[in-house]
Amino acid sequence: MNPVCIIGGGGTGIAAAYDLALNGIPVLLVERGEFTSGTTGRHHGQLHSGARYAVGDREIARECMEETLILRRIASEAIEFNGGYFVALNSEDEAYGEAFIPACEEAGIPTKRLSGDEVREVEPALSKEITMAVEVPDGSIDAYRLPMSFLASALELGVEARRYTRVEEIRSEGDELTVVLKDLTDGTVSDRRVSAAINAGGPWAGKIAALAGCALSITPAPGTMIACKGRMVDRVISRLRPPGNGDILVPHRKQTIIGTTEWTTDDPESLLPRREDFEFLMTEGEKMLSGYAEATQVAAWAAARPLAGDGFSSSDESRGLSRDFEARHHEPEGVPGFFSCIGGKATVLRAMGAVATDAVLEYLGETRVKSSADYPLRSWRDAFRKELAR
Known about the structure:
Layout: E1 4-7, H1 11-22, E2 27-30, E3 46-47, H2 58-74, E4 79-80, E5 84-88, H3 91-106, E6 112-115, H4 116-122, E7 132-136, E8 139-141, H5 145-156, E9 160-162, E10 165-173, E11 176-183, E12 189-194, E13 196-199, H6 205-210, E14 218-229, E15 236-239, E16 248-252, E17 255-259, H7 275-288, E18 297-308, H8 315-319, E19 325-329, E20 338-343, H9 349-364
Parallel strand pairs: 1-2, 1-13, 2-9, 5-15, 13-20
Antiparallel strand pairs: 3-8, 4-8, 5-7, 6-7, 10-11, 11-12, 14-17, 14-18, 15-16, 16-17, 19-20
């Protein structure tokens, strides 16, 4: 069997490569830069319990909760299962809590209501303006180590992984696909016949689909994040309100990260954080965490979410979209065996890879024999004991 080509070496592509290999399918994984160098390596690292989405989308909330527990079991080295609090600063936030708590319960997300004094006993640095909080099982993801654990496991199963390799063209001839690859280190171009191809390009997915003559509407939606010196809290702190800008604080090692903002762009390349976001984010952080506005900023960056669709006029409009995901088959456009991964979150990378795997297995007439949820991943360090790319 010719390999399945996965285009994009971020979380989704790497998880799909592992899952396919786990089920005995040969895989060629290509990434035009370094693995995880796109959106995957630039999120703020929250392990979502699903609580953030529970009011608006019970299904994705339930899926996040399930994936949180799976990742805790198979990739504990890359996860800090430290818990989180959604905090209320005023009566409007408290009113939202009345819908939030039962929505979480319906999605299978455990909660516990605390007073402002009770939550400050656990996290003393939290603002004295906080009137109540809801405890949820959130956590922190190491944005690099988690996908690299999947990659280490994929390499162990014989996946061919190539960095600095760009797909130039995707040709369809009947039921056969050919990908044209350019090695960016030496400029050589080669053709590879493949059994199927998965477009896991995130915000670049629309451009990759166009290489096969397919239409895929993706709007890159960048957001600014800032890391400040000092682990000012041990839990993930979120604002108890509908998802918005500057409403999440995530502890990572000896830093505290605030995210994020949102705008839309036509091009996800060379993204920089917007200077106008800095004051806004620090001010919003101060509302939840006393002293945050004066903390020393050590890093700032931007990452582009791959929103399905286009024509969004505001961040409120785009934030209202479901974070659900799918593997779309482009067979109706005349390219059988070509699939595009759409939607999702970092927390559900394994599930996204599984959905893509199931779609390809069905297309190839193969049967799933193993689930990626059942096997502990190799250490991310093991990826460096294998040859990642030629």
